[in-house]
Amino acid sequence: MSVPRRFLPSIASLRALEAVDRLGSASAAAVELSLTQGAVSRQLQALERQLGIELVLRDGKALSLTPDATDYAQEVRHALDRIAQATLQVQSVPLAGSLNLAILPAFGMRWLMPRLPAFSRRHPDVTINMSTRLSPFNFATQSFDAALHFGHADWPGTDSLLLKHEQLLPVCAPELVKRAKVDAPGDILALPLLHIQTRPTAWADWFQRQQVPTSGTLGGSMYDQFSTINQAALHGLGVALMPDYLVEQDLATGRLVSLHPVPEDIGGAYYLVWPTSKSRHSGLQKFRDWLAEQAQPEDPLPR
Question: Within 13 A of 243's CA, how many CA atoms are on the CB side?
Answer without folding.
Answer: 20
